[in-house]
Amino acid sequence: MMTSSLTVSSVNVNGLRAAAKKDPGFVGWLASTEADVVCLQETRAEADQLPAGVIGPEGWHVVLAPASARGRAGVAVYSREEPDGVRVGFGHAEFEESGRYVEVDLGGVTVASLYLPSGEVGTERQLEKERFMEAFLPYLVKRRREVVEQGRELVVCGDWNIAHAEVDLRNWRNNRRKAGFLPEERAWLSRVFDEAGYVDVVRALCPDQEGPYTWWSYRGRAFDNDTGWRIDLQVATPGLAARAVSARVERAVEHGLRWSDHAPVTVRYGAR
């Protein structure tokens, strides 16, 4: 069981090699973070493509789960403690080597990094997203039952690529027919909360706040105008969610200091 506090951060890096080359960039952020665990999505890199300061930074244990299709997707977990166990994928053949899910056991808590497909209406990408959601929900139900039986907790961090409610994106009226805010996608996410029994940790801590947004397009002045989407979530079992004491989106102070089109979402969970 988790007996001490735990700080977890999650960010879609939009290409780990590119994020690491920027100054300031991922390497500088990692050196300064107070997180105990960092979940990454869209790494788009193999271990042999990353410099030592990224794949083996001092003080961190790194689990990298790249996609079999090089240059696509990819997830990772950085932890200050060595994991007790590691699992890549969620047991579904199509997505087993897709670089979209990895989980690690750290004491009494399992921390997962998820990169749910983004989709695109009217294309195979949307069909892939729908297949992923159909397969992933039963896994979430099963995993919650398993961790509860084991007296453990689970948090699935990552880019869920769905804005759940109107308060989760600035320009919701113009996006009602676009991937990421489709009624069926939002209904699926509701099932994660209502049927599978997980908690959207940031929303639970900030029930009335617009956003806080986690992704802004590089087009136009979306970042400067805070025209964003809240699609990067920490979704936890109720016991762990109840211990969340603070959450913040680490939004860059200005456009030029961004090293991804997403910002880290950091949550501190108190001791039990």
From TrEMBL:
Q: State the Gene Ontology BP annotations.
A: DNA repair
Q: Enumerate the UniProt keywords alphabetically.
A: Hydrolase, Magnesium, Manganese, Metal-binding
A Pfam family found in this protein is Exo_endo_phos
| Binding annotation for Mg(2+) | 12, 42, 159, 161, 261-262
Where does the Endonuclease/exonuclease/phosphatase domain start and stop, copy by copy?
Answer: 10-262
Site-annotated residues for Interaction with DNA substrate: 262
Give the positions of the site Important for catalytic activity.
232
Look up the domain of life of the source.
Bacteria
Which note does the record give on the cofactor? Probably binds two magnesium or manganese ions per subunit.
Indicate what this protein is called per its UniProt record.
Answer: Exodeoxyribonuclease III
